[in-house]
Structures are given as structure tokens and as C-alpha cells.
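name: query_chain
kind: protein
chains: 1
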Amino acid sequence: MNPAERLLSIYDKLVAMQPDRAMLQTWANVFGLDASGEHLEDEVTACVVALRGQIDFAKARLSANEVPTHLTSPGFERLKHVASPAQLNISWHQLRGNIQPPECRQSFAWGSWVLRSEDENEMPAEEMTDLLSKLKELEESLGDTEMSPYLRDFIQRQVDTIRSALRVYDVQGVRPLQEAMRKVAGDFRIEEAHFFQELEKSPKKVKGILAKAIEVIDKTAKTCDSLDKIKKFGEGAYELSCKLGPKLLPYINKAIETLGS
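structure:
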């Protein structure tokens, strides 16, 4: 999908929703979230904020393609109005009349056609499931293993960063994953000395968890590159991760070497 096509997909799901629910539940269905989840409001809010960002991003890409702003009206503005955390307790019935007219959908359909050269590959469902499963397994290992508070916090931060990016993948595509890889690579760069000091004095079981964490990071970065087939906004995520400051690839190799010591 391209940036505007993602908006079209979300728009079509939204207007198909039944009108008798609050926006919190409506968005939960649109984004495929567990409506009975303990942290539903936080998850919906994250997706709604990501959707607002995607609207702005798609408009910027259309502007870069010299599309006049009036051609994104009224759909883009009205969807952004509906996609507000402040509206989560309002009934969908109160908002749907403003966003349902066919001219709203036409804005997204037109944008999708203009940006057709910016299509990304789509992450297979099984790959998303595998990444989420590995993150869950890694997080469970953190709870079951004694390690220094520093290492536990360091790994948990990477888990949270990648999981947050995956949560909004259907809204924003590969961009959040690329940003997550930049953040992860930055953490390794900034905390290199402390990280390896803690790693080298850790027992073998902890080193194994660290190696698994880096394996997940490595897999996520490679997934980014497989999705961004055009790489029009700079280097691929895996290339970027391997080139930022003290390179991430040596971290992977060093962690594996340390695991064997």
C-alpha cells in the first residue's frame, strides 16, 4: 500500500462500522484490537494519533507531487476531525454523517492513484505473528531471569519500542518500524560501554536473553528492508542500523561471541 491507500483502507473500514457504539469501540474494530483488552484506551489512542500523523504524511507526499490541497478535501480534514482522542467517548452515530459522503472517499481514492509509485510491500500476517510471539517470549524471559536492573530496563525498552511500532503498522506502514530501528541503534550507540560492561559480567542465561533480544532487533530491521522496496526516504533500516555510530552489526557479533565465553 502507499500512504494514501492506507487511509482509504481505514476509511472504508470506518464507514462500514455500526453506528450505535462509542468511538473507542468503533476504532478498536477498525484497527483490529481486542475490544476487551485491559489497555484498550491506550492502544486505541496510539492508533488514532498515528492515523492523524498518517493523514499529515500523505498530504505532504501529495504536495511533493504537486497535488493542490483542495483535491484532498473534504476527506482528509474530516477524517482527521473524527480521528481525535478527545472523541473516543462520543457515539459514532454523531460523527458518521460528516465523513460518509462519497466525495470524502474520493479524496483518498484520488490520493491513492497519485501515490501509486510509492507502494510498499505488505508484511505477511505470519511474519507479524512471529515478531509479536518473539517479543512476548523475550518479555516473559525477562520476568523469569535474574539480571541487573540496567539490562532488564535496556531490553524492555527495545521490546516496547518495537511492539509500539508493530501496533501502528497497519496505520503507517513501515515508517514506524524504521523509526524504531533508529531509536534502537541510538540506544546501542549511546550506551555501548555500560551495555557491554553489564553483559560481560552476566551469567550465561542472561547472555542468552541478550542474544535473543539482538536477534529480534536484527529480524525487525531486515523486515523493514523487505517491506520498503523503493527505499525512497533514505537508507534501508537494516543498512541504517549497521551504519549508525558504533555499528549495530558488530554488537550482534560481539553478543554472540560473549554468549560462548
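note: The chain has a mean pLDDT of 86.
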